[in-house]
């Protein structure tokens, strides 16, 4: 069977070859319905752009870098997979790189773009500051993920963490919780993401006339189920009382559930628990975990679209796009 061509995609989708090219390259002004029809035709035919020809014509590599702290963090594993899929649909090859939150590693990711090794970078920085990101070479194609501050000229995709944390905390309050803990306060200082989530938690308590008890700020050293288990178990051993827990992420919530089960604390009867990220495991825990679900597929599509537009010449001001999230109620809060 011959390799599918651009003309085959155009015929199946009922559009012009120029429209297919625009969709593949992330350019042009096709409607969302047209883009969806073209992508469906690409998937059905298994079409892949001729990368060699494009490199000769444009001087581009057809490769982008996706840089996260570690794919051992389940959220980053899931979002990296979705970014890879979105990149392929746009005719790009994604190289997944881990920085381990190290400043030198993060600077090296940016240097790859400046040396022309990749066409652009989708990046969730941990150690870099806005000043590190603003002084890039002209035409630098960069999209930031996450909640850290971004320079005005850099594209940025995020969710509204404070609003989502208020929603999760209010959900517990509406189910009768009056002594709500927050699991995930970093002992070495709050990250931007945690800071926003903790602020939303405190705002919801204040709005309900509840006091934020410092003893219910459960500290962690890192993000893992084991650390969530340790923090909750330690709090119980120290006599800290709570009837609800807002967890910074689903991994910590997994450990929290384990600690509560181990101490024969009924969930949600005695303690209701919410997580964050809607990881695949969340719906398969016992009880299934109520969680904040960021629209991860939309985050990936938006980031790749913005990057592709930069790669193909967009030189306007930075675009800061907020992607929706939603509270997904499950049995861990079903009172």
At CATH level 3, the topology of the largest domain is Rossmann fold
Helix share of residues? 40-55%
Mean pLDDT: 90
Globally, the shape reads elongated
Gap between N and C termini, in Å?
A: 58 Å
Structural class: alpha/beta
CATH superfamily membership of the largest domain: Response regulator
Rg calculated over all Cα atoms: 22 Å
How would you characterize this protein structure?
By secondary structure, this protein is an alpha/beta fold. It folds into three domains: 1-48, 434 Repressor (Amino-terminal Domain) (Orthogonal Bundle), CATH 1.10.260; 61-159 and 296-323, Rossmann fold; 161-294, Response regulator (Rossmann fold, 3-Layer(aba) Sandwich). The protein is 43% helix and 17% strand. It has helices at 6-13, 17-25, 32-45, 51-58, 74-89, 103-114, 130-134, 161-174, 192-207, 225-237, 250-262, 296-311; strands spanning 63-68, 93-98, 120-123, 142-145, 155-158, 180-186, 217-220, 244-247, 272-276, 290-294, 320-322, 325-328. The strands form two sheets. Strands 2-1-3-4-5-11 form a six-stranded parallel sheet, sandwiched between helices. Strands 7-6-8-9-10-12 form a six-stranded mixed sheet, with helices on both faces. Helix 1 (6-13) packs across helix 3 (32-45). The longest helix has 16 residues, at 74-89. The radius of gyration is 22 Å and the shape is elongated. The protein starts with 5 loop residues before the first helix and ends in a 7-residue tail after the last strand. It comes from Actinocatenispora thailandica. This is LacI family transcriptional regulator.
